[in-house]
Amino acid sequence: MTQASIGVGVARVEVEVTISAPRERVWKALVEETGQWWPKDFYVGREPKGFILEARPGGRVYEDWGGDAGALWYTVLVVEPPAVLELAGHLTPAFGGPATTTARLTLKEQGGATVVRVEDAVFGRVDENTSPRLREGWRTLMGSGGLKAHVEKQTP
């Protein structure tokens, strides 16, 4: 592969999902119950034991495979409960990289519900499929395939 055929640039997406629950409940599910709503088909390991989000600056967002094995998805940059979570991660060649990703998740109360807004930017090796894949991934994670479904199933 020649260097000219590799696209280097920035892909940026924004996704909003409304969850019928108070912001504190959505925040708790986001940072404390991640392993309960993280979709099984999003795991990259063959036999994951769980998905963990350490909600503190410098904390990890990772798959735990047991026995000190796993995959680091992000490092936590900013935690401002119950409103803001900022993350940074790296994409290796196995996942379309080399690239770096930064994501900002904000939770805003709106009429008894919570609007979860995700802003994600990937810079490095990107192509025309990067933005659509990111957008669809975040919609699934935050929406009916992940966080929204988990919270709304448990909220009367």
Automatic annotation (TrEMBL):
Source superkingdom: Bacteria
Protein name as catalogued: Uncharacterized protein YndB with AHSA1/START domain
Family statement drawn from the similarity comment of this UniProt entry: Belongs to the AHA1 family.
Gene source species: Archangium gephyra
Gene3D superfamilies per the UniProt record, alphabetical: 3.30.530.20
Domain Activator of Hsp90 ATPase homologue 1/2-like C-terminal: 21-142
